[in-house]
Amino acid sequence: QVQLVESGGGLVQAGGSLRLSCAASGRTFSTYNMGWFRQAPGKEREIVAAISWSGGTTYYADSVKGRFTIFRNNAKNTMYLLMNRLKPEDTAVYYCAADQREYGIVVRTTTDEYNYWGQGTQVTVSS
To answer: How many Cα atoms are found within 13 Å in the side-chain-facing hemisphere of 87?
Structure first.
């Protein structure tokens, strides 16, 4: 079992940057593949980025590729999402999630493949 808490959201102007953090409890964080998702009003929750348990493999949605960076520090039980060159269309609630399959070979990209979720943090990008 792992509990996830996101932080770092806020209001930023277009072109600005934010860094989201996802703090995890429990001893098994370092064995889980992790992901960042987002959900805008009236839209389905979608993958933003994902990272393997070791940090060696990453995935990015096309919409954020080249602007966002996902990384993790297993010693601190924390995952991050660095968001640069933010756009108004990045406005959403951002969630971190954990895939409970330990040492997973495949980095998952759909919501139903993740077992643990944080409460979300709001990111608002003004034009």
So the answer is: 8
Which residue's entry shows tokens 């806020």? 10
Task: Report the b/e string of 101-118 with b at 16+ CB within 10 A.
Answer: eeebeebbbebebbebbb
Tens-level pLDDT at each residue, the chain (127 residues): 899 999 999 999 999 999 999 999 987 899 999 999 999 999 999 999 999 999 999 999 999 999 999 999 999 999 999 999 999 999 999 999 999 999 999 999 999 999 999 999 999 999 9
Q: How far is CA 112 from CA 13, 37, 99, in A?
A: 32, 12, 10
Strand ranges, E, within 8-91: 10-13, 18-24, 33-39, 46-51, 58-60, 68-73, 78-83
| Identity at 64, one-letter amino acid code | V
Half-sphere exposure of 123 (CA within 13 A, CB side): 31
- Who contacts 82 (Cβ-Cβ below 8 Å, separation ≥6)? 17, 19, 68, 69, 70, 71
